[in-house]
C-alpha cells in the first residue's frame, strides 16, 4: 500500500510540475508577443516618396555640443584637409501630367482631409492592387463617383496619377 501512495504522489507531483511549466511558457510567449505588437510598424511610402532615415535603434547618449576654441570653424587651420561630402542622390523628377483646364462635366476639385492620407487603387475596391497614395491636404480632381458612393476615381493634381480612393475622406476645394 505504501508503494501505491508513493507512485500516486509522484504522478500528482509530475502533473503539477508539467502544468506549471506549461503556464510559464504561455506567459512568456504572451509577454513576447505583446512586446512585439506594441511597436508601431514603419510608415508606408507611396509612389516616388523617399523614406526618411529611421532613428537609430540604440539609445545614443544625449550630448550637447560644446563650442570650444579648438572645435570652432575659425580655429581649424586653412591647410587642414576638408572631407568632401558625397553628392546627394536626387530623386527622379516626375513631370506632372498636363491637367485640362476644363474639367469633365461631373468632375470637381477637392482636397484630402484624412490625416494619414489615402491609398490609391486600380479599381473601386480593396481587392484591387495599390497604385500609390495621396497625402493629407493634397489637391485632387474627383473624376467619377459611382452611385453607391463608397469609392471615387481621382486624379492627383501634382503628378497626374489616377486611381480610386475611399469616399468621405475629401472635401470640395473652394
UniProtKB/TrEMBL annotation:
Where composition is biased (Low complexity), the residues are: 59-87
- Annotated spans, Disordered: 48-101
UniProt feature, compositional bias: Pro residues: 88-99
According to the entry, every stretch annotated as the SH3b domain falls at 117-168
Q: Which organism is it from?
A: Shackletoniella antarctica
Q: Which Pfam families match?
A: SH3_3
What domain of life? Bacteria
TM annotation in the entry: none
Protein known as? SH3 domain-containing protein
Q: Which Gene3D superfamilies match?
A: SH3 Domains
